[in-house]
């Protein structure tokens, strides 16, 4: 059964800031990649995708995880591929980490979806709509609060 996990960002967490949120996404992607999963990061736009790719390069060399932007890198890509609205993963991926601010229509291509409930009211409402969509698609749903103090 497919699964969707929503991470709820709390005001007091490091992830409440944009940079803290991006760093958390890098952490999650690395966590899944270390478990041999092929991960797709769905960013809102190309600027965000490039910013996220840069964060991967800033990791300590002992913690570095190979990644590539869609259309770059080896033929079948790395464990982590970074894309944005309007592009598709270049190879089969099991997990999508969705950072886009709009409803997704591609989630059914993945066995696991990671999504977020941000602090912004409008974005929170859109996240609720995505939650309903995943439920209608038969995904097993769970929520996790991100409450790491600043």
TrEMBL record:
Drop me one GO molecular function for this one.
DNA binding
What is this protein identified as? Answer: DNA polymerase III subunit chi
Gene3D superfamilies from the entry? DNA polymerase III subunit chi
Q: Name one Pfam family in it.
A: DNA_pol3_chi
Per the UniProt entry, what species is this protein from, by scientific name? Vibrio caribbeanicus ATCC BAA-2122
What's an example GO BP annotation here? positive regulation of DNA-templated DNA replication initiation
InterPro entries assigned: DNA_pol3_chi, PolIII_chi_sf
């Amino acid at each position: 059964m497919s699964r969707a996990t929503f991470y709820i960002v709390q005001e007091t967490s490091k992830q409440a800031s944009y940079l803290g949120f991006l760093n958390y996404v890098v952490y999650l992607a690395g966590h899944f990649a270390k478990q041999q999963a092929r991960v797709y990061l769905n960013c809102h736009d190309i600027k965000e995708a490039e910013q996220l790719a840069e964060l991967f390069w800033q990791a300590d060399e002992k913690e570095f995880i190979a990644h590539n932007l869609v259309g770059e890198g080896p033929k079948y890509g790395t464990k982590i591929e970074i894309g944005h609205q309007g592009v598709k993963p270049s190879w089969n991926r099991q997990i999508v980490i969705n950072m886009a601010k709009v409803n997704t229509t591609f989630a059914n291509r993945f066995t696991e979806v990671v999504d977020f409930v941000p602090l912004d009211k409008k974005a929170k409402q859109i996240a609720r709509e995505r939650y309903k969509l995943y439920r209608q698609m038969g995904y097993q749903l769970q929520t996790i609060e991100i409450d790491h103090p600043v």
